[in-house]
Amino acid sequence: MYDFSFTITYDVGADEYTDQFIDRESLRSEALYACLDPSKMWVLELVTGDPEDLAAVDELLLDESLDRYSVSGRSCKATRQVNQITDRSRQRMTYTYVSDVSYCDAIPLIAVKYFSDGVLFRRTRSGETAQWHVLVQDDENVGMLYDTVSGRLADGLQFSFDHLTELEQWESRLLSPSGIRAEQREVLTAAVNRGYFETPREITLDELATELGLPRSTVSYRLRRATAELAKAFVDQEL
Amino acid sequence: MTASPYPESVLVSPDWVVDRLDRFESDDPGYRLLEVDVNTAFYDAGHVPGAVKIDWETDLRSEERHDIVGPDELEQLLGACGITDETTVVVYGDDSNWFAAHMYWQLTYYGHPDVRVMDGGRGYWVDHEYPLSTASVSPPTVQYGKPLSPPADPSIRASREDVLDAIGTETVFVDVRLPEEYRGEITAPPGMNETAMRGGHLPGAKNVFWADNVRPDMRFKPPSALRDVYRSHGVEPSDDIIVYCRIGERSSLTWFALSELLGYESVRNYDGSWTEWGNMIGTPIETGE
Predict the structure, then answer these.
(1) Locate the HTH bat-type domain: which residues (chain A) (predicted)?
(2) Distance (Å) from the C-alpha of residue B191 to the closest C-alpha of chain A?
(3) Taking CB atoms and an 8 Å cutoff, what residues of chain B touch A160?
């Protein structure tokens, strides 16, 4: 699989949605896009940030009339449905389904015309930039996509190429491999559900071990491994 | 759609084409429609009814001479597309008519009397739900009818010698590539072999991106807006202008805009472009902004 990566930089005032990210430094967004043909697209977007900054974008996130996707000077002619599927103080996740596309100059909908087998996309956004990763099986048409996308950008948007590489590693909040093994996950889930992490603890390690039918030392070890992996993964993602 | 501000003798609207589909689809060689895409796979997915497919890699280039197609080859190609020297030829294609403009430029260079570009190209046609067809199109082969050698209008083409001679003169170079190509950071699009040993631009060249010629819907900007694009970069109608890009196709679009739409007096397309200039020994090159 190849990763074709480029960055689009927005001038202030060029895009209403991006302006929020420019004004509010705590905001970060990561989205996965899938597109199988030029008539529809799915978007899973996770926006994180300080609670007051997130509250300020809530309305935009759910506004089906706002075109958050077009990179050209014209709005998409398509139907948009947006659902919020996570609403926490520091994160929102939305699921958007764009369908009945007559035209829409969203990166994925431009790209899928060059990759008829379908394409996956990851997009991260903070401040004035949106970085795109276009994930394709074959790099044959990447050059054409480069020329086409760069030629479609609206005034106030600048294109810069980052890389085209065979994908060897993947770091993503949305799809991060947690590194937790199945048996560790089972213990961790039981510990959370039974209140082991509450203050004060609602269950002791001995009681948890009994419930799970495992030796205390095994439960203790698996719990430590699982929390260690989570802590490391968290710090890695934050850096 | 409002009437085009440009003469129909060079630029026709999609409506103009759709009103004449029966003539384009007819065996009579009076009208022919040609689709020339960067991405040659697009045609097979659906094309304007009656449009003949042109493959820029094989039809518009001479592999042997590493040059644009020669006059004899072009006569053959046109004849095989059912085109005589009296045919009204309309070209269109993807990426806002990159290669359609390039073919227009080649036909004008060799002297086909009546060639026009369909405004907005393939993209506008598809987006606005004009009719598409997947039927194969092969009009009866004809004799083109007149020799295309020597080229009828050599004044629209610049060679490397012309470019070298123009450096340091009042001639204005217009580089239509992306800023990152102009600055010399990129010598070829990712994954493509249209590369050069060195990056950068012709000394003194102005960077006016090709897409600045067109509107978001891919049709050409109206005359005043188009003129403003060039005026804002200090390019005036009376200037002697040489345009170039990477392989001479995007610059054909800019040549078309300046020479055919705006009627600037002296505009040449340097079709050797950066794949030639950036690979030659000792040529003067500037990098950066």
Answers:
(1) 183-231
(2) 6
(3) 180
Domain-ending residue, one of A109, A137, A166? A166
Residue of B nearest to A4 (CA): B190
Put simply, whether B255 touches A (Cβ < 8 Å) is no
Q: Is B245 a catalytic residue?
A: yes
Q: Distance of alpha carbon A137 from its chain centroid, rounded?
A: 20
β partners of residue B174 = B206, B243
Give the separation between CA A173 and CA A234, rounded to whole angstroms.
Answer: 9
Residue A45 domain boundaries? 2-166
Taking residues A65-73, what's their average pLDDT? 92
Considering the domain architecture, whether residues A112 and A186 belong to the same structural domain is answered as no
Q: Which residue of B has its CA nearest to A163?
A: B190
Residues 6+ apart with CB under 8 A from A68: A17, A60
The pLDDT-based confidence of A175 (bands split at 50, 70, 90) is very low
Residue B59 inside a domain? The answer is: yes
| Given the residues B10, B74, B245, B267, the one annotated as active site | B245
Listed ranges A30-39, A88-97, B43-52; the one with the highest mean pLDDT: B43-52
Our CA-based measurement puts residue A106 at a distance from the nearest CA of chain B, in whole angstroms, of: 13
A148–B contact, CB cutoff 8 A = yes
ipTM computed for the complex: 0.92
Judge: B95–A154 Cβ closer than 8 Å, yes or no: no
Of B67, B63, B35, residue with least CA distance to B51: B35
CB-closest option in B95, B127, B217 to A147: B95
Average pLDDT over residues A188-192: 91
Could you say which of A150, A154, A159 has the minimum Cβ distance to residue B216?
A154
Residue ranges in chain B modelled with pLDDT below 70: 1-3
Tokens at B54, concatenated? 């042109």
A163-177: average pLDDT? 67
The string of pLDDT tens digits covering residues B9-48 is 999 999 999 999 999 999 999 999 999 999 999 999 999 9
Answer yes or no: do A139 and B127 touch at CB < 8 A.
no
Give the residue among B169, B173, B163 at the shortest CA–CA distance from B276. B163
The answer to whether the beta carbons of residues B150 and B230 sit under 8 Å apart is no
pTM: 0.87
Give me the mean pLDDT over the A195-206 stretch: 92
What is the residue range of B190's domain? 154-277
Last residue of a domain, one of B127, B142, B174: B127
Between chains, do B216 and A74 touch, taking CB under 8 Å as contact? yes
Write down the pLDDT at residue A172.
57
Euclidean distance between CA atoms B244 and A179, whole angstroms: 52
Q: Please check the confidence at residue A171 and state whether its pLDDT lies above 70.
A: no
A106 φ/ψ angles, rounded to the nearest 5 degrees: -85, 145
pLDDT, one tens digit per residue, over B45-59 is 999 999 999 999 999
- Smallest Cβ–Cβ distance between B180 and the set A77, A154, A160 belongs to A160
How confident is the model over A116-145, as a mean pLDDT? 91
Q: Give chain A positions within 8 Å (CB) of B125.
A: none
